[in-house]
Amino acid sequence: MRSELDAAIAHLHEQLADIDDLDPAEIERLKSELDEIRETLDEQDVNSATLAERWKTQVEHFRESYPVLTENAGRVADMLAQMGI
Question: Which domain of life is it from (predicted)?
């Protein structure tokens, strides 16, 4: 499951790099959140009550403008939930 999550995070990083019409600060904030997810899992000191929820909240407002990005971001949240996070 962890390798799938890492692949999904890498894919989201690639998608964010390809978006031209999103505020660069917003892109960096999302990338930072993805990096925090990865780092938190590496430390195995996971605050499971907030990590997946924070990620869902971060991408919720992209639902209409970026449906594929939102779908892939949802996969990351689902994987975190399946891992008990």
Answer: Bacteria
